[in-house]
Specification:
Strand 1 and strand 2 form a beta hairpin. The protein is an alpha+beta fold. The protein contains 8 helices and 10 strands. The longest helix has 16 residues. It folds into 2 domains: 80 residues, OB fold (Dihydrolipoamide Acetyltransferase, E2P); 200 residues, no CATH class. The termini are far apart. Helix 2 runs parallel beside helix 4, helix 3 runs antiparallel to helix 4 and helix 4 runs parallel beside helix 7. The chain is elongated, with a radius of gyration of 21 Å. It has a 5-stranded antiparallel β-sheet with strand order 3-2-1-4-5.
């Protein structure tokens, strides 16, 4: 018996001399590791369908699903190779960064699959790729995995809920949001959200990241954009220093729930290539 599904290849590694173990995010079965027998020996069997970032239609053995084993790939047909990633280093690194986030913050259900498919397609077609797009993608992934911090009130004392009033943020090309009336001055990673000035003084300084009013309004707008790809004009009021701080905050938000000190090779490579790539790092200029 076979199982047919659609998936995005998140990575692979050789096993033995001729086979691959491939990690895929599927549209209906979550994240799976599958075995592609002979894939290294005969490329014609799967072609580019098992290349990292490829979106493919797969036929797998049902047995691996039933006994928590590793399903075997019987057929793999390419849906979208995202070919521009092979010609453009910047796009490829950004695409690999999307996969890094998804691997760290996996969530059950098809919504994360659709989110990743939308992000990769937008990158491939040149309709996204600036730092704001990466900020939005990271926050949306955190929301889908249940790791998005509280941004509209102080998580320590409860003050500043936007439902209780506050200034409206100016239109920045993303969802209009209400800025909490209370002075939220920092993001506490350990507490899971923003804290007011009074509570910040009682929080663990190692887990705090400072927030300006502009940074907070940008994070709220990006989080409020939900499943829609955010307009690149979002965050345009940020100074270079504030934009860098957004990048620092997002990196810590990505790595904090999974131990804090987690390598992000694609993101680190983007940062290292700063002299050659435009906006190489979410937060750099």
């Amino acid at each position: 018996m076979m199982v047919e599904l659609e998936g995005i290849v998140c990575g692979s590694r050789p096993v033995g001399e001729t086979s691959l173990l491939v990690t895929i995010l599927t549209d209906s079965r979550g994240k799976r590791v599958v075995r592609a027998r002979g894939a290294l020996k005969d490329f014609r069997r799967t072609g580019a369908a098992l290349d990292t970032t490829a979106r493919s239609q797969l036929i797998l053995s049902a047995r691996g699903f039933a006994d928590d084993g590793i399903p075997v790939v019987y057929q793999a047909d390419l849906i979208d190779a995202h070919v521009t990633f092979r010609r453009n280093l910047e796009r490829l690194l950004r695409a690999l960064f999307l996969l890094e986030i998804v691997r760290l913050h996996y969530a059950e259900g098809g919504e994360l699959y659709n989110h990743l498919a939308t992000g990769l397609a937008a990158l491939d077609r040149g309709k996204a790729g600036d730092r704001v797009f990466l900020w939005w993608f990271a926050l949306r992934t955190l929301a889908l995995s249940g790791h998005l911090p509280v941004l509209d009130r102080c998580v320590a004392c409860g003050a500043g809920d936007s439902a209780g009033g506050g200034q409206r943020a100016p239109d920045r090309g993303a969802t209009s949001v209400a800025i909490p009336a209370v002075d939220l001055v920092a993001l506490s990673l350990s507490a899971g959200g923003t804290v007011c000035r009074s509570c910040a003084g009682r929080s663990d300084p190692a887990a705090l990241e400072p927030l300006s009013r502009s940074i907070l309004s940008t994070l709220l707008a990006l989080a409020g954009a939900s499943g829609r790809i955010v307009d690149p004009r979002a965050g345009r009021e940020l100074s270079p220093r504030e934009a860098m701080q957004v990048g620092v905050i997002l990196r810590r938000l990505i790595t904090w729930p999974v131990g804090g000190d987690v390598p992000l090779p694609a993101l680190d490579t983007l940062q290292a290539c700063g002299g050659a790539l435009s906006h190489p790092y979410p937060g750099s200029e």
